[in-house]
Design a protein that fits this description.
The structure holds 2 protein chains of 2 kinds.
Chain A: H1 2-35, E1 73-79, H2 91-100, E2 102-108, H3 115-123, E3 130-134, H4 136-142, H5 158-166, H6 169-173, E4 184-186, H7 188-191, E5 197-202, H8 203-208, H9 217-230, H10 245-252, E6 259-260, E7 269-270, H11 275-289, H12 302-309, E8 317-321, H13 324-332, E9 341-344, E10 360-366, H14 373-382, H15 386-393, E11 402-403, E12 409-410, H16 421-428, H17 450-458, H18 475-501, H19 509-519, H20 521-536
Parallel strand pairs in A: 1-2, 1-3
Antiparallel strand pairs in A: 3-10, 4-10, 5-8, 5-9, 6-7, 11-12
Chain B: H1 11-20, H2 22-44, H3 58-61, H4 68-75, H5 79-95, H6 98-108, H7 113-123, H8 131-142, H9 148-155, H10 167-195, H11 199-207, H12 212-223, H13 225-237, H14 244-250, H15 256-259, H16 262-271, H17 276-305
The chains are: A alpha+beta, B mainly alpha.
Chain lengths: 538, 310
């Protein structure tokens, strides 16, 4: 009797365990089904237009016929978006559906770096039709056979064909090893102002103590020293790039912390063993020693930087993106009246930095497994036309924006909010990463705040002559150069931070050069210059 | 109902035993499934270590490149440095493992049961704090600006030190945070083993004139020697497998020469670049080394103390 009772209890316990495991599993799959957007059935809100609607003039479509699809179709897309942006549908997707008959449902990546997530999507064969925030390098890692080679469809893509003609470096630089182009690229020069990065300083503090705008290392040193005398507890020079501070500063010294082509040069060189790099390290070490630089600069990222810059007198000068000025001033003016940031000259003796790339290896792609390849391609091509680029960057005239009598653009529903990309994305789904590859010239990304314009005007001739060429490497070259580059970069960051902090003396420079030799930098120079020759002979 | 256990290899007996213990077998089934799916099957998928694995092609479609990943790994200019760092940190963690034994011995000597239980419970609470939080705490305490440690050494006149940026301090910080987290948890098994020692032995020792310290040496330690041997063998086997999380969280560019371990290297060059074949190859390398260490430690233990896992 006792045995039967015990065995019954054991059986009950096991059944309970099995049931709870099954329940947990089924909950997970149900959750997954809920988060993926509905595929069947179009959007509610009149997206599929009957063909007897009056023909609307949507402007210059560059030769592309609208609507793109005769019968309404559904497309899925994934890209990086602001967490507050309306998904899977918003004004942008609805207007786009009206014009093209293609209902797009947009998902967002779960993390800021989509690499691993894309890896999972590729492995489980569930890539959406349109994949944003891709690049040639990323696609070569994921597998080119998962994406559509755009260059083979140029006959149906009038607008992007024109883009390729106007920007020959795309076909020269951004094709994958098999010779195909897999991304619609981001035309940086049409979207952003000319200069985006540089030195920024506390205008109000400088005015208060009559410190002139410094230009070049000596003047910066004097200015920082004076600030330290007035505010002994402060660290005048702060940064939010951590150890990558050397990447920014080395440029205005005429060198770089990796392989680069010097200003006016025609060969690739290795920066960290050059005299200019040594000069930069000596200069920064001097700043550090005299307490003019944040002692924790090496690990100082956004959190530490924000806590320092938003104090009345903890840090005054930094290098960064001019786009940050407005948001920092907004956050600071409540606590710090008179807080003002202004752009300045570069710190290094050469006074110029690497030219910002006109086109980036970044953009949007179409999945090769999509059921609507041509429709998806044409949809993205539309966004490169004058009509499409206005839609994606500004919206619809008299609906989202208004042209005032004096020619300025206003956004009636965004009164009281900052006029930038983020707000438009949150309100209407415009300017979304991946979809914004070309902008109407009147768009917010080009017409930046007055402070930003100050930077563009101040730095009249900020760039080296040529952009850094983007070359393609063979698989053998990649597998050889990757470990060398990794080891060198690690050593560069280690040595640079140690010299700046004073734990290592600059007198050991010769052994530093020898160390780079033993790590194989000369092999790297050869690989780069061979690839450069190939690139030039294209 | 118990059948007399004979030493015969009669299959019939084996099946009878299995049937008799069927409830235990069913209870074991979920564990078996877990082992099969998460531990045994991945051993088969180690074949990706010999392939140029591309996600889109899968295992079946990726081409074989045999030992190329391994050659790339060994030819890396930093290979010896990385291996040295990994082995050094692993060795230090093995050498500091006995602290848990000492802690268990001390706990056993406590008279007040209430105090003993509270100390034990508090000691293994840090184990359940995430590594990220513990590393964050280390960063806060050691911050040169306003960290607690720097303030305290400031009272005795030493200027603030940026500990996290000094290579000499890295291994100490690493081992300290590791042991602070794991001490209590590791000692649990030893405390349990000590309770298994028969009280008669202690009484006999008392009669023979042992004081407390002698009792520890002559009764307690020999009594748990089997447990110590087994735990040490397992720990040595895991020497090279130090996970990358702690190193990644505590390292800074200025300490790369001592803080870059196999795990962080593979994370940078393998996982982040979706080079899963390479990451598998390095994982396989680590497993082979672990196996050799485990077999070696087991053999050594068998020779020295007659205690071994197999």
């Amino acid at each position: 009797m006792k045995m039967r009772k015990r065995s019954f209890t054991v059986l009950l316990v096991m059944v309970f365990m099995l049931v709870s495991i099954l329940a947990a599993c089924s909950n997970n799959s149900a959750e997954q089904q809920e988060t993926s957007p509905p595929t069947s059935g179009g959007t509610d809100g009149g997206a599929s237009q009957p063909s007897d609607q009056p023909v609307v003039d949507y402007g210059d479509t560059g030769g592309l016929a609208l609507p793109i699809a005769q019968a309404s179709k559904n497309l899925k897309a994934i890209t990086t978006t602001n967490p507050d942006s309306p998904l899977p549908e918003n004004f942008f997707t609805q207007e786009l559906a009206k014009r093209t008959n293609l209902n797009m449902q947009i998902e967002r990546y779960k993390s800021t770096d989509p690499t691993e997530e894309l890896g999972l999507l590729v492995a489980s064969n569930s890539l959406p039709d349109i994949v944003g925030a891709t690049s040639g390098t990323l696609i070569s890692r994921l597998g080119e056979d998962m994406f559509v080679p755009i260059n083979q469809y140029l006959d149906i893509l009038p607008n992007y064909s024109k883009v390729l003609e106007e920007n020959p470096q795309i076909m020269k630089s951004f094709r994958n090893a098999d010779g195909n182009l897999y991304t619609f690229n981001y035309l940086a020069h049409e979207i952003s102002p000319k200069v985006n990065y540089g030195m920024i300083f506390r205008q109000d503090i400088f005015d208060k103590h009559n410190i002139a705008l410094p230009n070049g290392p000596d003047e910066y040193y004097e200015a920082l020293k004076k600030l330290k005398e007035i505010y002994p507890d402060s660290y005048p020079l702060i940064n939010y790039y951590g150890e990558e501070i050397v990447q920014l500063f080395s440029q205005s010294w005429g060198t770089f912390h990796k392989m680069f082509v010097p200003d006016g040069g025609n060969q690739w060189e290795y920066g960290p063993i050059s005299d200019e790099y040594k000069d930069m390290l000596v200069y920064l070490a001097k700043l550090y020693k005299e307490g003019l630089m944040d002692p924790e600069f090496m690990t100082s990222r956004a959190d530490r930087f924000d806590s320092l810059i938003l104090q009345p007198d903890a840090g005054f000068v930094f290098q960064g993106c001019f786009c940050r000025i407005d948001s920092l001033v907004n956050s600071a003016t409540e606590k710090i009246p008179g807080f003002e940031l202004s752009p300045g000259y570069f710190m290094g003796p050469k006074g110029k930095v690497m030219a910002e790339a006109r086109v980036l290896d970044f953009g949007i792609s179409v999945s090769a497994k999509s059921a609507h390849i041509e429709d998806a391609l044409k949809l993205i091509d539309y966004l490169y036309s004058p009509s499409g680029s206005t839609l994606v960057s500004m919206g619809v005239e008299d609906v989202t924006f208004k042209v005032e009598p004096d020619g300025t653009i206003s956004y009636p529903e965004l009164q009281g909010k900052a006029l930038n990309r983020t707000e438009l994305e949150i309100a209407y789904g415009l300017n979304m990463t991946g979809f914004l590859n070309r902008s109407d010239p009147r768009g917010v990304t080009k017409n930046v705040s007055p402070k930003y314009m100050e930077a563009v005007e101040l730095l009249q001739d900020p760039f080296w002559q040529e952009e850094q060429p983007v070359m393609s490497f063979t698989e053998d070259e990649i597998s050889t150069k990757t470990p060398i580059e990794d080891a060198l970069l690690k050593a560069v960051f280690e040595y640079s931070t140690k010299v700046i902090m004073g734990t290592e003396s600059i007198d050991g420079w010769d052994s530093w050069v020898k160390k780079n030799e033993s790590l194989g930098y000369k092999k790297l120079v050869d690989i780069y210059n061979t690839a450069y020759e190939r690139y030039n002979n294209q | 109902m118990d059948t007399v256990k004979t030493k015969s290899n009669d299959r019939m007996h084996r099946w009878r035993h299995l049937y008799r213990d069927r409830h235990l077998m069913i209870l074991f089934l979920p564990c078996l499934i877990y082992l099969a799916v998460f531990k045994i099957t991945p051993v088969l998928w180690n074949v990706t270590a010999f392939q140029n694995y591309k996600i889109s092609k899968g295992i079946a479609g990726s081409e074989f490149i045999y030992f190329k990943h391994f050659i790339n790994f060994f030819n890396n200019p930093d290979f010896l440095v990385i291996l040295k760092n990994t082995l050094a940190l692993g060795l230090l963690s093995v050498l500091t493992y006995p602290i848990a034994i000492v802690f268990a011995l001390l706990l056993n000597e406590l008279r007040s049961q209430w105090f003993k239980k509270s100390v034990q419970t508090i000691s293994y609470l840090p184990f359940f704090i995430s590594i990220v939080v513990v590393s964050g705490m280390a960063w806060s305490f050691l911050s040169p600006d306003d960290g607690l440690i720097n303030r305290m050494i400031g009272w005795i006149g030493i200027s603030p030190q940026y500990f996290m940026a000094q290579s000499e301090w890295f291994s100490s910080i690493y081992i300290f945070t590791l042991n602070w987290q794991h001490l209590g948890y590791n000692s649990i098994i030893f405390v349990a083993a000590i309770t298994g020692i028969s009280q008669d032995l202690f009484d006999a020792a008392e009669i023979d004139g042992c004081n407390r310290f002698k009792k520890i040496i002559h009764v307690t330690l020999p009594g748990i020697s089997a447990t110590i041997a087994v735990m040490m063998i397992i720990t040595v086997g895991n020497l090279i497998m130090i996970g990358f999380e702690r190193a990644l969280l505590l390292q800074t560019p200025a300490t790369y020469e001592v803080s870059d371990v196999i795990g962080t290297y593979v994370y940078r060059v393998g996982i982040q670049q979706l080079n899963y074949g390479f990451a598998s190859a390095v994982g396989l390398f680590e497993s082979v080394i672990s196996l050799l260490l485990l077999v070696g430690a087991n053999y050594f233990s068998k020779q020295v103390s007659k205690v071994s896992i197999w």
